[in-house]
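Data availability (excerpt). The following record was deposited with the supplementary files.
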Amino acid sequence: MSAVDTVLSKLSQAGTRNLLPAQDEREVALHYVIAVLCVLACLAGLVVLASGRAADGWSRDIRAEVTIQVRPSGLETGSVAAAKAAEVLAGVKGVSEAVAIEPEKAKALIKPWLGDAILDDLPIPNLVEVRLDPKTPPRPRALMDALATNGIDASLDDHSVWLKDVEQSALTIRLLSLGIFVIIGSATAAVVGFATRASLTARADVVDVLSLCGATDIFIAERFQYRFARMAFQSGLFGAIAAAAVMAIIKVTGSSQSFTLALPFSWFDLLILTPCPVLVAVIAGITARMVTVRLLGHPRS
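Predicted structure:
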């Protein structure tokens, strides 16, 4: 029996979409590489959601508070001036609460930065912590006007510098994650393209017989498209499951508080992993089709 007859015999026993061997040991490494790429992509997506949630929470907390520094006048003490300012600010529309910070508490806030050595030699500022109504927050000008009307010398810090830094950091993380997605997508396409070339070369006899039987280049390309799309879907599924397991371990084991504050994962974040197998299958299928058609010398259609 000739090689052509052998190939025809195998083809006659195969389904329309299963003209290629169902399994190839040479593609085990490809499975692994695609799965790893999917794990990285899924983890990047989870980090985007968690970091965005953290940044939104920090921004919301920063916007919900302002700090007033009160400078005592005349013979009044700093504590008395701060208490007076807190009472005035509590009556401003849109202020939920105004509390004068005790000197000992202010020292405790400064201590980690300056230490005990020079803390006693520094004047402690008289601060008032003002919590704003998130629905109808007052303008900074309204707070300052209320203090000026009552003869209180003070300055306001709305933490805009910190807010700008938080928002800039969140934007940077999102852009980096988007870049990671693009890199991983292009890497997946490159890997599948290389594998398609190798597969097409290894199965040159099957391709030749199909051509002799009247199969068009598009028909042959569809066989490779289906094969690599199915393989990529399986690898993407494994990758998504692995990424979900990593997130679940982090969330269940309850990592350090600082890590939780930086990346507050939610169980609903797992929903973004569901499109991963389909997306990687689409990338692999399109790439395999384009590469096969180009190698067979037929214009895409």
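Summary of structural features: Residues 10-16 have pLDDT under 50 and may be disordered.
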